[in-house]
Design brief:
The chain has about 150 residues and is mainly alpha-helical. The chain has one domain. It is about 80% helix and about 0% strand. It is built from five helices and no strands. The radius of gyration is 18 Å and the shape is globular.
Length: about 150
């Protein structure tokens, strides 16, 4: 296994751990998560969709990242989700909203908003790096496969 492939798998593993941990934490303390989501600056009618949609999406991304065939799609979706979380965190830090409770799962909710921003930016950068590496890896794999199929 090449170094590039090892890095891609480490990035995927970090996202899998992050998303499975936070989604399971949300489901294990569902009442608290639901209450926190109700305190967000979104219409209350969105709450049922968000409380089910976010953790289910996190689990879906984790499954996609587990398989090499779907890893690029998983990384792209992880980038979008982390990008949205980062944008939201930045909006909170810029006082676009009044005090907002953290609806993250597990110990991540103990972070300050500034720490959240750094944490999210780290994972955004990791997703971008993973996408770039995976695209090169996928292209190389496809090129090798196509060359071998013409023999």
């Amino acid at each position: 296994m090449s170094t590039k492939q090892k890095v891609i798998e480490c990035i995927a593993a970090l996202f899998i751990l992050l998303f499975l941990y936070t989604s399971i934490s949300k489901f294990l303390d569902f009442r608290h998560f639901f209450a926190q989501m109700n305190n967000q600056p979104f219409p209350k009618s969105w709450t049922p969709f968000l409380v089910w949609g976010i953790p289910c999406l996190e689990i879906t991304i984790s499954v996609a990242l587990f398989f090499e065939r779907t890893r690029l799609a998983g990384l792209c979706t992880a980038l979008v989700l982390m990008g949205l979380f980062t944008f939201y965190t930045a909006a909170i830090l810029l006082h676009f909203f009044p005090y907002i409770p953290c609806s993250c799962g597990g110990v991540i909710q103990q972070l300050t908003w500034r720490q959240h921003l750094v944490f999210n930016l780290f994972f955004v950068a990791l997703a971008v790096w993973g996408i770039l590496l995976q695209r090169k890896h996928s292209f190389t794999f496809i090129s090798i496969t196509n060359k071998n199929s013409f023999k």
